[in-house]
């Protein structure tokens, strides 16, 4: 939350785990859509992404625009490498993010 405090536009990318096919790309507008608790449940921090967004919403500290992209993972065990389907989703998410950034800068 501290990283986006005062920001107008935030795009966050993280691993997702909803049970969908690995490599599936999820896009959520954090201002208008509910974030399923299980979607971003893996974290090395105390809070998951969904919990951090929910807390920011309650504290009225969400950025004016905040979009989350999640790439569905296949395995979350320590030491695992990206599966081919997850690896192939990465450039697609980058393309979506770049399009979003360009549209924000357009009149």
* Number of DSSP-assigned strands: 3
At CATH's second level, what is the architecture? 3-Layer(aba) Sandwich
Strand content: 15-25%
The first-level CATH class is given as Alpha Beta
Within the CATH hierarchy, at the fold level, what is the topology?
Rossmann fold
Cα gyration radius (Å): 14 Å
Structural class: alpha+beta
Task: Output the helix-strand order.
Answer: EEHEH
* pLDDT averaged over residues: 84
Q: Percentage of helical residues?
A: 25-40%
> Any idea how many domains?
1
CATH superfamily: HybD-like
- The coarse silhouette is globular
Please mark out the parts with pLDDT under 50 across 5 or more consecutive residues, or reply none.
none
Enumerate how many helices there are, as a single number: 2
User: How far apart, in Å, are the first and last alpha carbons?
Assistant: 29 Å
The strand line-up of the biggest sheet is 1-3-2
Largest sheet: 3 strands, mixed
Write a structural description.
This protein has helices at residues 49-58, 84-105, and strands at 9-16, 25-29, 65-72. The chain is an alpha+beta fold. It has one domain: Rossmann fold (3-Layer(aba) Sandwich). The chain has a three-stranded mixed sheet, covered by helices on one side. The mean pLDDT is 84.
Question: How is this structure best summarized?
Answer:
With 107 residues, the protein is of the alpha+beta class. It has helices at residues 49-58, 84-105; strands spanning 9-16, 25-29, 65-72.
